Amino acid sequence: MTGLLFAALAGALFAIGIYLLMRRSILKLVIGLLLIGHAANLSIFTAGRLDSPIPPIMTQDAIQLTAPTADPLPQALILTAIVIGFGLQAFLIVLVRRIVGRNGVDDTDEMTSTDIVDRGQEDGK
Amino acid sequence: MSGLLPMLPILVPMASAILLLALWRHPSIQRPLHALLSAVLLGVSVLLFLDVEQNGIRTVVVGGWRAPFGITFVADLFSSIVVVISGVLSLSVAVTFLRKPAAGERADSDRSPFFWPLLNTLLMGVNGAFLTGDLFNMYVWFEVLLISSFVLTVLGGRRSQFEGSIKYVTLNLMSSILFLVALGILYGTVGTLNMADLAVQLPKVQNTALVLALASLFFIAFGIKSAIFPLYFWLPASYHTLSAPLGALFAGLLTKVGVYALFRVFTLVFAPAMTQLQGVVLVVAAFTMVVGVFGAVIQYEVRRILSFHIISQIGYFIFALGIFTPIGLAAGVFYFVHHIIAKSNLFLVAGAMERVTGSADLRRMGGLYREHPRLAILFLIPAMALAGFPPLSGFWAKFSVIYAGFGSKLWVVGGVALFVGLLTIFSMMKIWSEGFWKNRPVEDTPFKDVESTGRLDVWTLAPIAFLAALSVLMGLFAGPVFDVMVRAGDQLMHPAAYINAVLGGSR
Predict the structure, then answer these.
(1) Cβ of B191 and A29 within 8 Å?
(2) Nearest in space to B304 (alpha carbons), one of B360, B382, B344, B365
(3) Residue ranges of the domains in chain A?
(4) CA–CA dist B495, B61 (Å, integer)
(5) pLDDT digits (tens, 9 = 90+) for B228-256
(6) What is the pTM of this model?
(7) How many angstroms away from the CA of A35 is the closest CA of chain B?
(8) CATH 1.20.1270.10 fits domain A2-51+69-108
(9) What is the pLDDT of residues B44-85, one digit of tens each?
């Protein structure tokens, strides 16, 4: 049951995040990426069998925690992912601040100069 | 010490990064020291390759935890070959950076004292992704190289760099997140993330639809990083905004990490799912080749043309993967080596062209053949190699991929590959005739898009000549080189040796 709840929550976060990515504001884009990152972490969390009451203790020759046992490893994975995500978000926020300060716009539609081919001289030739 | 050999290509750049960071107050020392440390990196990479070539697959179990639990680093022929090539490239680029900036030249990103440590953490991430035997660890290395590359893309602080970086950052973060989600679902399904262990466990999973969905998720996640057909938009938007030597390093290494991951994961972990995905992979390969080469046609800046050609070349890699025979994968590995050498070299040449003419735009260039005949010859070698003229490396690379494709009766995609080769020649001829052959246009108003010094020194030409010589040698000695590639392809196609080397007696 908890698993279903988490899945729904992760799905909702994905949806909100992707909606924000579609917006033209760079700040909203960053918030969107942040939310999608959280959604990814939550979906890993569910891989650890949230409902299981059986503690993760293995016999000596076993090589894997099998189905009914709770698995703590995904939490270790998320911890790594959260730290990495935190660093990336800090970078992104500074980047947005610099972009808005340098280019003076918070609109991705205004940021096309690296894509557009300058054809200005072609006609003159 | 020799037991740690497979980890040295990761540890050397890590130590270099720390050392160079400690010297941040002494930029005049950092620059030559980085070149020296890159030479050390190349040295240990070559040692690793020779060892793997002689004694077979090498593994290191970190912390002494046996295979499915701990993180394993694995060096097989494919990974040691790409580690050597990344060492070659990092040394060449480091030598290019040794050039003394002319007086009054605009400060570029490599003036920052943090540039050098970041360059080394980038190499650490790249080599880590090449050598790890654990999927989650690969994610971590991807993040290490991504965050380094993010900072490196914006270090110059120019407007275009910011615009390019926001596209680069967003799409690459999306790819990382998809990778992470796929990892979570994969772990929930199989209960392991060690790639060798996955290769054993995954075929036992009953739910083949789930496995196929997972394989597709990985394909998309790595596909964004390697810039395949519908997912490549970040690449031509950002690569040409970098400084030229840095662009060469990015062009040579970063997309190739994605391609490496595709090769590794789809030969080792998802080999059974490949039979279902093969059609998709081949269609994507064909579109990637065609779209990349057509995108280059309308461009008039040298490095923008070259950026689109990266995409087109990625198509050949994906084609080699889609053929999915030992000879196809061997051709893919050969293409890997050829592509990194030729493409990075062209980016270095483009940087030299921009500096002597003062413009990135081909319409404003010209007369370079008369003014700098040595540069012209050095452009021709990698350009002909990229277009696939014999006896250069590119001929054998294209020939072997297309030969393997026809061998598997993939007439259409093979035909597309041949046709794209023709268009590649067109683009290279355009750079040649516009930049080198025609007279330099007379301008009404003086322009200065890029800082121009009007002359070339040995630090610029030596790495270009070195990489060009490698292209020629690889073409002339294609037989012995290809023998090694065939063994690498064989190891990829028959992962039993890899699995045995990692899991050993634990099963």
Answers:
(1) no
(2) B360
(3) 2-51+69-108
(4) 19
(5) 988 888 888 888 888 888 999 999 899 99
(6) 0.92
(7) 11
(8) no
(9) 999 999 999 998 899 888 877 777 788 899 999 999 999 999
